[in-house]
Amino acid sequence: MSSTFLGMPAAPPRSPYGSGNLRGDEKFPKAAHHELRNDQLRRNLRKATHTIRGKRLNVTAELPDWEALRDAGSAIKTDTMNRLPELLEQLERKVTEAGGTVHWARDADEANAIVTRLVAATGSEEVIKVKSMATQEIGLNEHLESQGVRAYETDLAELIVQLADDKPSHILVPAIHRNRDEIREIFLKEIPGVDPELNAVPAELAAAARAYLREKFMTTKVAISGANFGIAETGTLSVVESEGNGRMCLTLPETLITVMGIEKVLPRYEDLEVFFQLLPRSSTGERMNPYTSLWTGVTPGDGPQEFHLVLLDNGRTAALADSVGREALNCIRCSACLNVCPVYERAGGHAYGSTYPGPIGAVLTPQLAGMHAAKDDPNSSLPYASSLCGACFDACPVKIDIPSLLVELRHQNTEQSGRTVEQAAMKAAAAVMARPGLYTTAQKAAGLGRVVAGRDKKITRLPAPFDGWSESRDLAAPPKQTFRDWFASDEGRATLGAAAREGAESRAESATPATDDSEEQR
Amino acid sequence: MNARETVLGRVRDALTLAPKPPAEVPRAYRTGRTLPDADRLALFVDRLVDYKAEVHTCAADETAATVARVLATRGARHIGVPAGLDRDWLARFDGTVQEDHADIPAPGLDQLDGVVTASRVSCAETGTIFLDGAPDQGRRALSLVPDLHVCVVDLSSVAVGVPEALARLTPHRPTTLISGPSATSDIELERVEGVHGPRTLDVIIRTDA
């Protein structure tokens, strides 16, 4: 179907404020404070992120063409975004031809309503779920619960999070913030009929989850999944996993409902040869994850006989409308950037307040859901949750330049916030610096700042409206004497004179040039 | 406007508002690789063992003996097979065999001690076996629910890398990539083999087939 040109293009809307899980309750620095006080959490995180970093480096170093794969992956995603309308229409056509039904959702609420309606049509009051970022993003489980449908998470980590009434804190390992003893406690409390002798040993805990979910897999009639890839050329969907819970959900129920962000489409089946190498090695640090499923619509006599694909916008088109920010849509959710990030390693995933934590979350979340200046939006703090060290860019399998995106979002946030006190202060500073007399007076006045400094000559809290700045930084107290005062003093003149004489002598000594280290001097 | 037209309209608007960067896809990564049989076998075995699969090699005329020996070692007495499996492979097995069909519900598969299937293609570099639901591999549930999967792989079907293996597949077939037994690293990143999928994977490689 061709669309009629109706006039000037309109900027697509963000995910509506207040829907789904794309916004926390507090700004990042405040939220991170809670997590930083938790020693156990920091130990768990440090151990986990360092383990997985090492594994990733081993298996990526193994491939001599790793950089060529990254280049291909990056270009395929860019090409995909350029051709998104035709690819989505092609995917829809192919899935429909193969016996599936395609639905479109403008936002989280619409996607939740579609899924709820589809579940209701089956008559089932429970569903089994494969770990999925998209359904976490839209808050599907909470919505289903409110409609009387019980959703069972089947991924071990998601199960731990769900049983503890907790939130995921990592894209790949959602319960990374829990250690084995905590998990044992959760299982003892929440799994009916679990062996009270259960030990805090990963193998035993995994076995307890297997036993608990086995019956659910055998009897539940509806499953809900996300998708790692959707191939436009063939209508093939793919889920990449490890435990076999994905295969169970994709194979045993009568009805399968897949919720997929529109940016997950790939042009060709052949493109999988790139992503099936990039994703597992970047994500779990394995050469290949234990299980990957590929299915195309419905296959008679094999798997669910009813298949629904829900294509989700929820702010993705708003990100696409930003020539810099759209790069974040290339993300394949491997989580390599989380594992190398010094900020994530200390603050953990919850501080970001969004389904998407870590460096990629800090650029993706504000783009999907916006940074509303008028509402003092917690998302406006996310672009600052970074030291811009660049480790995430190096680790990204599709070469997303996360640091540049963060800087761009900081710029946008400043532009959007209108005339702030900070901007007024900068303007005043510029005016003062343009007049030497005024500047000298101002510097003398700044010396008064010494009275608010502590004994360690540090100012830890500035008065409003500058308290935001000092929330996460200390400021050195202004010195007694400014540089300009010192420069004009007798002491300053004497010191500078001595330095000048010394410089002249040393230049005379080294008059014969040393050619050996010319490389360094160039 | 319905949701479909709205979303597609937004995508077109977005692409009009922000200029498209050039996107020529460079495919400089390795494809079309080949290796002599012995090297491919060695690489494949190394990767399978690394992922805790049990590997057995045999000649094609030893298939029945090898299958029987593996099933006996595992204590499997009641096994499932896809309808199109070469029944000569089970000539030496003295337990009971349930031929699969689409009407057997999942709990019926849960009663099996194990399952024996063939495979479509494999990837040596990653130790991955691809099943595509052909008659000798059966529907996906059959190789998933039983706790033991004995999978027969012909060396001629083992490709060197991922691109070479994918090139041999038919896209619309329901396809499962298997790399070792099911596993999880969800608890403190410590790998545990065996969660919901088969906890034991025996791979029989027929070196002259």
UniProtKB/TrEMBL annotation, chain A:
Residues 1-26, 494-522 are annotated as: Disordered. Residues 415-488 form the Lactate utilization protein B C-terminal domain. The keyword Electron transport applies. GO terms for biological process: lactate metabolic process. Keywords: 4Fe-4S, Electron transport, Iron, Iron-sulfur, Metal-binding, Repeat, Transport. It holds the Pfam family Fer4_8. Residues 328-400 form the 4Fe-4S ferredoxin-type domain. The keyword Iron applies. NCBIfam families: LutB/LldF family L-lactate oxidation iron-sulfur protein. This is Iron-sulfur cluster-binding protein. It comes from Streptomyces albidoflavus.
From TrEMBL, chain B:
It comes from the Bacteria. Residues 43-205 form the LUD domain. PANTHER family: LACTATE UTILIZATION PROTEIN C. This is Lactate utilization protein B/C.
